[in-house]
Design brief:
Length: 118
């Protein structure tokens, strides 16, 4: 997977938007305003993904290319290097996991509104 494929896959998920809230170098992906992933244009070999606490620890232990995310709460955020031990299938699963982590914490009213719109 590369930065373009990462972006395309994130945007293929329901209700995902992208923006650059920090500066012109960091692209953020959100679901209903909540960030689940980001990539830096200055470091296009690296993605940052939200993760549940236990899974984050497991992934870091199993894959050297998965690290606690720099500038993010390392308890819930991983940075993952493209084109290393994590293949495209696993990378998509990790993106889905990040998306699901944010989705499950959205208020019920927001989820119901989103589901009825689609």
């Amino acid at each position: 997977m590369n930065i373009e494929e990462f972006r395309e896959y994130c945007l293929s998920l329901p209700n995902v938007t992208e923006d650059m809230p920090f500066d012109e170098n960091v692209l953020v992906f959100r679901i209903f305003g909540k960030i689940f992933a980001c990539i830096s244009m200055e470091n296009p070999d690296l993605a940052t993904l939200k993760c549940n606490e236990e899974k984050a620890i497991e992934l870091r232990a199993e894959y050297p290319c998965v690290e606690g995310a720099f500038h993010w709460n390392k308890k819930y955020w991983n940075q993952i290097w493209f084109n290393r031990e994590v293949n495209d299938v696993l990378f998509k699963q990790l993106i889905n996991h990040a998306y699901d982590e944010v989705w499950k914490k959205l208020p019920r009213k927001v989820k119901n509104n989103l589901l009825t719109q689609n």
